[in-house]
């Protein structure tokens, strides 16, 4: 049973435009969400996170939005750059329930930013 | 000055063999993890250790045995390797007291069992 889902396996965007990556979850106990970026043959790299007490967190070109009622989060990258081309993973955790450290990952979305 | 390092990067071996993967972190973190990324690209947690103590042990065959000699190291030993063990294994570390509560990953070990 996949508790975190990224339903779009791939996304292609023109350089300079906005990239929107989506993630849905089913477990209402999740209270902390993270986005990771992964290049081929490398480990995932932490990008940005958000606690369930917030609905938005911004860091430079990256913004994560959380809609708790819809159990949905999204990552916005603006403007998109060719170097952003990678696989993006959404992850969730129940930090306040004591399941510290157990991240549940989505299956990833491959973003291609075309020059 | 790699933060989380793993050795070896690639491992090709025969079914039935025993192999180990090593992980070291120089971030001063107190918690370390092993994840498996299977052929469908799902990343799933296997184990975590906090200050050398086993915290998370997911449903993993007991052929897999983690060992943490100290806070900075977490090794994974696999006995009697099977074809289905072929995957990429990632080590990660984190510090509970820090914000954001992120885990930092190593480059992965690509295991192929023939």
Descriptive overview:
The complex is a heterodimer of chains A (115) and B (114). With 115 residues, chain A is an all-beta fold. Helices cover 0% and strands 52% of the residues of chain A. Chain A is built from no helices and eleven strands. Chain B has strands at residues 4-7, 10-13, 19-25, 31-37, 43-50, 53-57, 64-70, 73-78, 87-94, 104-105, 109-113. In chain B, the strands form two sheets. In chain B, strands 2, 4, 5, 6, 9, 10 and 11 form a seven-stranded mixed β-sheet that branches. Chain A binds chain B through residues 32, 34, 36, 41-46, 48-49, 87, 89, 93, 95, 100-103, 105, 107-108, and chain B through 4, 31, 33, 40-45, 48, 50, 55-56, 90, 92, 94, 96, 100-108.
Can you lay out the helices and strands and say which pair or pack?
The complex is a heterodimer of chains A (115) and B (114).
Chain A: E1 4-5, E2 10-14, E3 19-25, E4 32-38, E5 45-51, E6 56-59, E7 62-67, E8 72-77, E9 86-93, E10 104-105, E11 109-114
Parallel strand pairs in A: 2-11
Antiparallel strand pairs in A: 1-3, 3-8, 4-5, 4-9, 6-7, 7-8, 9-10, 9-11
Chain B: E1 4-7, E2 10-13, E3 19-25, E4 31-37, E5 43-50, E6 53-57, E7 64-70, E8 73-78, E9 87-94, E10 104-105, E11 109-113
